[in-house]
Each structure stands twice: as structure tokens, then as C-alpha cells.
């Protein structure tokens, strides 16, 4: 295993200021003092692994990342959990799944695959240095953002010879502020097409979805839902979260992984956890017409989005040019959504047993 060089910053955030920042961290605005870095070159492979002061990159302006978007990322959380009464520790949730997905994203973007052990070691080494930045508050966490960019100096359209892998850490508050979100069904834009990059976690997918998110906001909605690009009919996912529907008979449905949907780890965890709880969890095509008709007739009784950042985000309403459907009063999470959220977040925090071995304690000394 590679040895990480630890270069501590000479000007760390004073403890008092850190405590203040950790009190109300929000999301993605506060960063810790350090970052993990690993370089790659065709000649040397992965090398020069280190934890170092967080600072701006020096990247050549001709690097392919700026011109052709060769970039991938991940997102996961480190958090305090209580495995047993009186015990305390820090854990990650299924980080091995992030490491595997990062490799799959790299393959799709013609980037070098970072070995899973190195990915995991980078997280661990960074957490050791930044352990005082893991917030204690209920539902709070230290969000980790691993990503990789190409580094080079040429404008030819081909994969770069050099890459930088980096992990940022950002304290995050609880996402559960609002009752339920309103969702705009985009008919103008799609997120991914068969054979495209929809299954890769790459920045380009997000760049293409921002205008749809702006459209949603203009329509007074919080989030956007994308349909399949071929038929504009089957539900795919939100801009950065997967989506599930609760039916009257108690079963839960979510679109199958068909190559254009991101393989959410939360999605996968809920499919397995729901089955363990005795809920019938189905992966099946979801027709948007059936969603609107079902919400009106009472066949579909709840909907929610799921992803690492928010865990489960209840959906109160769907809107499109033709009209709107609400679940209940449009702002109250449904009982199945709440039960799944409680079970998942409770398992993560150590309030419930973890029969799957998903919660990975991190040794910080
Ligand atoms: C990251 C992401 C998700 C959620 O994946 P998790 O592993 O559950 O966090 C869903 N959709 C998109 C487009 C994403 O980028």
C-alpha cells in the first residue's frame, strides 16, 4: 500500500472558529484545512500520495478537463455513530461501493482506475488529520468529495496522460429541513441517453442538468425529474438523486438500471433494506402517465428521492406543463418514506443493527 505523506498546514483554522463553523455548516460551503492528493502519470502510475493543505490547484489552462470535461467524482459521509451503548466512533457507509463506482466512472471517461485500496486509504488518512471537523450534531456529517481531473497541456481530443485524484472534506448539516419537495417533470431536457455517460458520476452530467434545474425553479419547484430520452415517457431520476414510488398495496417501485441511470448506493441500500423489512421492492419501468394518473386515483400514495446527501427526500408534488399532482397536502412525508428513512439513517448511526455489514468504522489513531 502506498504511503501517504502528511504535510500539515502551518495555518490551521483556530479551534474557536472551527467550532463556530461546525455549529451551522449548511452544505458544501465550509471546507476543512486539508485535502488528499494522489497523482497519476502514464509513466509512473499512481504516485505521490499525500495529505496536504487545501489550496488552489495549478493546472495548465490547456488541460483536457477545461475543454473536454474529463472529470469524475464521488460523494460520501463520515459521521459519528454509537455502535454500542456508551461507545463512540466514526464510520463511513459502504465506502467500498463508492470506490468501485469511481473505477467504473473512470473507465467510462477513459481515465485511469484508482485501486479501491488507495481510494479508501485516502479517505482514512484525510479523516485522521481532520477528525476534529466531523460535526457532532444530530444528522450532521463530514461530507467527503473524492474527484479526479485530467491534467495535461494539449488541445487534441484524446485522453490525457496525467491525472490528479483529490478528496475534499466539507462539514454538512442535516438535510431534513423542509417537509417535502416539489418536483418539475422536465419535458424539454433529458439527462442521459443510451450509450452516453448517464451511469458515470461525471461533472458533465451535472453541467447538462443545470438548465433543467433552472427551469424547475422558474416553475416554482425545488427539483427536476428527468424522463428517458428515447420516449420522454419513462421516469429516470432527479438531477442528483434516484427516485422511488410507494403504491397503495404497499409495494415500492423504482426504475431499473438500464445504463442511463446512476447506480445510487442509497437506492441499492433501500432495495435491500426494504426487502429485509418485508416491503416488496420492485425494479420496474415507471411510466410518467401512470405516476400522474396513479397519484390522482390513489394507486400511488408516496414518492421520494434518495441519495447520499439527503438520504431520503420526500416528494410532495409533481408538476408539468399539463398540470400538477400532490401527495396528501403536498408537504407532509408519507409513512413508508419516513419508515425507510428512519431505518436507513438509524442503521447508519448505529441505532439499529447492521446485518449487511455496511457501516465501516474508521480507525482514527
Ligand atoms: C450520486 C448520484 C445519485 C445518488 O447516488 P448515491 O450513491 O445514493 O449517493 C443519484 N443520481 C445521480 C445523478 C448522482 O450523481
Automatic annotation (TrEMBL):
Family indicated by similarity: Belongs to the class-IV pyridoxal-phosphate-dependent aminotransferase family.
Pathway assigned to this chain's UniProt record: Amino-acid biosynthesis; L-isoleucine biosynthesis; L-isoleucine from 2-oxobutanoate: step 4/4; Amino-acid biosynthesis; L-valine biosynthesis; L-valine from pyruvate: step 4/4; Amino-acid biosynthesis; L-leucine biosynthesis; L-leucine from 3-methyl-2-oxobutanoate: step 4/4
SUPFAM superfamilies: D-aminoacid aminotransferase-like PLP-dependent enzymes
Name of this protein: Probable branched-chain-amino-acid aminotransferase
Function: Acts on leucine, isoleucine and valine.
Catalytic activity: L-isoleucine + 2-oxoglutarate = (S)-3-methyl-2-oxopentanoate + L-glutamate; L-valine + 2-oxoglutarate = 3-methyl-2-oxobutanoate + L-glutamate; L-leucine + 2-oxoglutarate = 4-methyl-2-oxopentanoate + L-glutamate
Record PANTHER family: BRANCHED-CHAIN-AMINO-ACID AMINOTRANSFERASE, SUBGROUP IIII AMINOTRANSFERASE
Keyword Protease: no
Enzyme kind, highest EC tier: transferase
GO biological process: isoleucine biosynthetic process; L-leucine biosynthetic process; L-valine biosynthetic process
EC id: 2.6.1.42
InterPro entries: Aminotrans_IV (IPR001544), Aminotransferase-like (IPR036038), B_amino_transII (IPR005786), BCAT-like_C (IPR043132), BCAT-like_N (IPR043131), BCAT_family (IPR033939)
A Pfam match: Aminotran_4
Keywords associated with the record: Amino-acid biosynthesis, Aminotransferase, Branched-chain amino acid biosynthesis, Pyridoxal phosphate, Transferase
Modified residues (N6-(pyridoxal phosphate)lysine): 201
Cofactor(s) listed: pyridoxal 5'-phosphate
GO molecular function ontology, one term from the record: L-valine-2-oxoglutarate transaminase activity
Amino acid at each position: 500500500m502506498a504511503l501517504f505523506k502528511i504535510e500539515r498546514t502551518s495555518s490551521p483554522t483556530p479551534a474557536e472558529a472551527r467550532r463556530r463553523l461546525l455549529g451551522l455548516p449548511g452544505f458544501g460551503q465550509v471546507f476543512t484545512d486539508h485535502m488528499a492528493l494522489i497523482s497519476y502519470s502514464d509513466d509512473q502510475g499512481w504516485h505521490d500520495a499525500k495529505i496536504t493543505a487545501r489550496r488552489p490547484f495549478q493546472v495548465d489552462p490547456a488541460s483536457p478537463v477545461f475543454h473536454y470535461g474529463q472529470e469524475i467524482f464521488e460523494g460520501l459521509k463520515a459521521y459519528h455513530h454509537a455502535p454500542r451503548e456508551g461507545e463512540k466512533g466514526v464510520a463511513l457507509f459502504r465506502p467500498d461501493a463508492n470506490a468501485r463506482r469511481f473505477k467504473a466512472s473512470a473507465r467510462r471517461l477513459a481515465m485511469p482506475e484508482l485501486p479501491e485500496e488507495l481510494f479508501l486509504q485516502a479517505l482514512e488518512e484525510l479523516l485522521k488529520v481532520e477528525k476534529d471537523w466531523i460535526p457532532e450534531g444530530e444528522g450532521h456529517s463530514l461530507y467527503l468529495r473524492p474527484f479526479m481531473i485530467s491534467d495535461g497541456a494539449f488541445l487534441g481530443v484524446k485522453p490525457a496522460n496525467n491525472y490528479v485524484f483529490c478528496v475534499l472534506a466539507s462539514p454538512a448539516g442535516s438535510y431534513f429541513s423542509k417537509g417535502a419537495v416539489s418536483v418539475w417533470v422536465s419535458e424539454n431536457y433529458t439527462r442521459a441517453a443510451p450509450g452516453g455517460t448517464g451511469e458515470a458520476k461525471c461533472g458533465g452530467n451535472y453541467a447538462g442538468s443545470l438548465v433543467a434545474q433552472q427551469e424547475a425553479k422558474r416553475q416554482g419547484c425545488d427539483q427536476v425529474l428527468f424522463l428517458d430520452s428515447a420516449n420522454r415517457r419513462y421516469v429516470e431520476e432527479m438531477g442528483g438523486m434516484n427516485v422511488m414510488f410507494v403504491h397503495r398495496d404497499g409495494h415500492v417501485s423504482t426504475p431499473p438500471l438500464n445504463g442511463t441511470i446512476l447506480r445510487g448506493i442509497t437506492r441499492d441500500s433501500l432495495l435491500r433494506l426494504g426487502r429485509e423489512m418485508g416491503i416488496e421492492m420492485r425494479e420496474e419501468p415507471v411510466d410518467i402517465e401512470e405516476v400522474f394518473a396513479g397519484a390522482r386515483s390513489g394507486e400511488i400514495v408516496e414518492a421520494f428521492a434518495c441519495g447520499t446527501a439527503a438520504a431520503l427526500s420526500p416528494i410532495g408534488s409533481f408538476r408539468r406543463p399539463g398540470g400538477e399532482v400532490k401527495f396528501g397536502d403536498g408537504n407532509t412525508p408519507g409513512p413508508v418514506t419516513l419508515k425507510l428513512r428512519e431505518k436507513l439513517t438509524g442503521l447508519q448511526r448505529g441505532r439499529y443493527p447492521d446485518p449487511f455489514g455496511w457501516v465501516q468504522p474508521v480507525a482514527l489513531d
